[in-house]
Amino acid sequence: MLVKSYFRDFVSLLYPRLCMACGDTLFRHEEVICTICLGELPRTKFHLYEDSPLDKVFWGRVPVCKTAALFYFSKGGRVQHLVHQLKYKGRKEVGVLTGRMLGKEIWTVQDYHEIQRIIPVPLHPRKFKKRGYNQSEQIAIGISEATGLPVDISSFVRTVASETQTRKARFARFENVKEIFHVADPETLVNQHILLVDDVITTGSTLESCVNILLAVPGIKISIASIAYAVV
Length: 232
Fold this sequence. Notes:
Rossmann fold; 2 domains; single chain; four-stranded parallel beta sheet; alpha/beta; 16% strand
């Protein structure tokens, strides 16, 4: 055991394990996010009350049952760094861990127990091939681990590869995504309450487009969750 401990310490010197939020070295008992960041990252707690700022994003646009976001997102902040590691640096474990954290939080609220399946916002196959994974699916996996809800990646798909949403205005974001999704298996979603999962919510345009298309399914109910909400 002592030899293994020395070996782990030697490997850590060559390849230090870093916090995906602040970049500091992780201690042996820490994984993905350091203890300090876990305590200081700005939680929204939107799932605990009605008429939250995230609820209001969708007022007058699309009907959603519940909304939740784990952290507030600010430019240059630790949450942005965390999301960057997930989306662009191949750190899938960030999505799974934060999804698990989000799942544990929302599962304390009885209303979320009405949800029957989790659907991550899909990537176009071309972008999926380039990135190697869907970051929203990794978040959904974490939520599933915490709640026991199944993840559905086949009923709702992306048919058009849209341009990046970064630096687009709200209307431009909506125009960019309004006709790029498709319900591939509507029969499985009839009368279902689904949790639609995205990585970061800014204007809500991507999710609005998804909800508008999903609402064609009879009896469907939709709640929304993400790991970050950006105040615009």
